[in-house]
Amino acid sequence: MEKQIISIEIFNAKSPQKGITIDNVSLNDDILSLKKKFCVLKNLAVERISFKLEPTGKNLVDNQIISELKLPILNAQLYYRDLGPQIAWKTVFLAEYAGPFFIYPIFYFQPTLIYGDIAKSVVTSSKCVATIALICHCLHYAKRLYETQFVHRFSNGTMPRRNLFKNCSYYWGFSAFIAYFVNHPLYTSPGFTQVFVSLCCFLIAEIGNYSIHILLRDLRPAGSKERKIPYPNKNPLTLLYNYVSCPNYTYEVISWISFSLMTQCLPAGLFTIAGFLQMKQWANGKHKNYRKEFPNYPKGRTPIVPFIC
């Protein structure tokens, strides 16, 4: 069967006055191949461009076949948006997690540099909890760095370069904010029972979070964008999938609630609240996509908090 060839005129979504025509486009081609042809003419990196059916519509995915768009044979049109300079997701994650891993210990090991002479004159009784907090904090971000390098499989290759500054400011800033208070010479730690129980919950949540990330990695073959419904495996910490769509976020929140209670530190609590609000938004989006994509998706699951939200 002879391939059907069309021409597609592509307009700027922000100012669609004059378009660029791409000739000899096969209906069997995918969006990515069309992007490559377009970017040669525009002298832009493929990662910077998104295509839409309408100026304010959703971005078309790269592996979508052009015939599926139901474009007219004559006067076929699409719209593009320049996303600006891009940077790899992996690079951003490594940078934003490396900051806290190296920043936090400065406050612990160099107190006179941060707090001045008061660090020499005051003998704190909370050094043990400060040490535990240091280990937990560094362990958390060491785990994140390891997962970014060896576990996660990113469905999106890049993000806007401006996100590097925004994300690093958030993580690095909160890390310094928390470390300043927990390692302060005048810091007073909570009682033993509160610290011990919180530490146990923190460690369990960290292992649970890692377990979910391993499950998700095994669910998607390397180099694939295939999506499946995640279900618990033999690891009991994955049973949370019976109740929520994003148990990795649930465990992440539990980790930071535990850290906040263990240190009884207000900045850690603020970081926990900010993180929960952001992860709840992400979880809502993923939950919605799961239900839309899979008609047989388990109805009893909520996005992030079992039975609630």
From TrEMBL:
<dbReference type="GO" id="GO:0005783">
    <property type="term" value="C:endoplasmic reticulum"/>
</dbReference>
<feature type="transmembrane region" description="Helical">
    <location>
        <begin position="169"/>
        <end position="187"/>
    </location>
</feature>
<keyword id="KW-0444">Lipid biosynthesis</keyword>
<feature type="domain" description="TECR-like N-terminal">
    <location>
        <begin position="7"/>
        <end position="82"/>
    </location>
</feature>
<dbReference type="Pfam" id="PF02544">
    <property type="entry name" value="Steroid_dh"/>
</dbReference>
<dbReference type="GO" id="GO:0016020">
    <property type="term" value="C:membrane"/>
</dbReference>
<dbReference type="InterPro" id="IPR001104">
    <property type="entry name" value="3-oxo-5_a-steroid_4-DH_C"/>
</dbReference>
<dbReference type="GO" id="GO:0016627">
    <property type="term" value="F:oxidoreductase activity, acting on the CH-CH group of donors"/>
</dbReference>
<dbReference type="InterPro" id="IPR049127">
    <property type="entry name" value="TECR-like_N"/>
</dbReference>
<dbReference type="InterPro" id="IPR039357">
    <property type="entry name" value="SRD5A/TECR"/>
</dbReference>
<keyword id="KW-0812">Transmembrane</keyword>
<keyword id="KW-0560">Oxidoreductase</keyword>
<keyword id="KW-0443">Lipid metabolism</keyword>
<dbReference type="GO" id="GO:0042761">
    <property type="term" value="P:very long-chain fatty acid biosynthetic process"/>
</dbReference>
<keyword id="KW-0256">Endoplasmic reticulum</keyword>
<keyword id="KW-0472">Membrane</keyword>
<comment type="similarity">
    <text>Belongs to the steroid 5-alpha reductase family.</text>
</comment>
<keyword id="KW-1133">Transmembrane helix</keyword>
<dbReference type="Pfam" id="PF21696">
    <property type="entry name" value="TECR_N"/>
</dbReference>
<protein>
    <submittedName>
        <fullName>Uncharacterized protein</fullName>
    </submittedName>
</protein>
<feature type="domain" description="3-oxo-5-alpha-steroid 4-dehydrogenase C-terminal">
    <location>
        <begin position="158"/>
        <end position="308"/>
    </location>
</feature>
